[in-house]
Design goal:
- The mean pLDDT is 78.
- This protein is an alpha+beta fold and 314 residues long.
- Strand 10 and strand 11 form a beta hairpin.
């Protein structure tokens, strides 16, 4: 049997309205009771609270837990925000630290360049390393000083620690430096304290070998290597590095210059070598003095008999 939906709708409307009216009057009564300023109503409120509120702990427990969860979530949100802020500050501190380390390194290199001991006759020009060739077959760097600064091909370059290379190619505002590690680099050096002369030969490795040593048995790892000044390639006495024994059992040089952090280089103004433009005459050998014939004594033979002695015997 089908139900009449219209009948159900007719009953739901009045019941809903009655319940809404009862709820309204109940709320109004509660409002009036709590707002009436009367001793009797105050005593009624106190008695009601004493009877009802202690028995409502079980009902307040979920509310208390919910309030605690909300406060915990708010605290977690604050902690998360503080964590993100600390992360941003940490990133800034790392950037500042890196900048401070770079400035400290540059300051140390500049101080080292100021304290390096050179021949008083040598003057220098300092330049900033602009770029690196980055090729495994060519070891060179580019400086921001050139012909306008008086730079000439062949001049030696140093950082604050030791010899770096030589000028090879000069422009108006820039110049290229061939490093000692380049395969085309050849410089004469002196190994101390033995005083052995040798040739530092670049081979595109961090520790170039030394060749053409007169007495290799007199060279020990740890010996000091300086420029010899032979051939007028470099000024004498510039620090190059120390001797070490390579993995291939060859004598190599651990360079004193910090090739990993080439920021500033000092270009040494070398004095030009004396050039011979005229052919000299032949130098004859020295003439030995010749003694006169009279001064040469005659040979004496004491065993030969004289004629007077033979006549007396007769």
């Amino acid at each position: 049997m089908a139900r009449d939906r219209n009948t159900d709708a007719d009953f739901k409307g009045p019941v809903r309205r009655i319940l809404m009216a009862v709820l309204f009057f109940a709320l109004a009564a509660i409002f009036l009771v709590w707002r009436i300023d009367s001793p009797r109503v105050e005593r009624f409120r106190a008695v009601f609270i004493d009877k009802v509120v202690p028995n409502m702990d079980w009902a307040m427990a979920p509310v208390t837990k919910l309030v605690g969860m909300v406060e915990g979530f708010q605290s977690y949100a604050r902690i998360y925000e503080q964590n993100q802020e600390l992360r941003r500050e940490l990133q800034q501190m790392k950037a500042w630290k890196e900048a401070a380390v770079q400035l400290e390194q540059q300051n140390a290199k500049l101080l080292a360049q100021n304290q390096v001991r050179l021949d008083p006759k040598l003057t220098s020009v300092s330049g900033v390393v602009m770029a690196d060739s980055g090729s495994p077959f060519r070891q060179s760097v580019l400086l921001n000083v050139g012909a306008r600064d008086g730079i000439v091909d062949g001049w030696a370059t140093m950082d604050g620690l030791g010899l770096v290379g030589r000028i090879s190619g000069v422009g108006q505002t820039t110049s290229r430096v061939i490093l000692l590690t380049d395969a085309s680099s050849r410089i004469p050096v002196t190994i101390q304290p033995s005083g052995q002369r040798a040739m530092l030969v670049g081979d595109n490795s961090p520790a170039p070998p030394v060749e053409f040593i007169e007495a290799p048995e007199q060279v020990r790892p740890g010996d000091r290597v300086i420029s010899s000044g032979d051939g007028g390639v470099f000024p004498a006495g510039l620090l190059v590095g120390q001797v070490e024994l390579g993995p291939d059992r060859r004598l190599r040089v651990r360079l004193a210059a910090d090739y990993e952090r080439l920021s500033f280089l000092r270009v040494l103004r070398s004095h030009p070598a004396e050039q011979i433009t005229e052919a000299g005459g032949l130098i004859p050998p020295p003439v030995l003095p010749v003694l006169p014939p009279a001064a040469v004594p005659a040979p004496v033979t004491p065993d030969a008999p004289t004629p007077a002695a033979e006549a007396g015997d007769g």
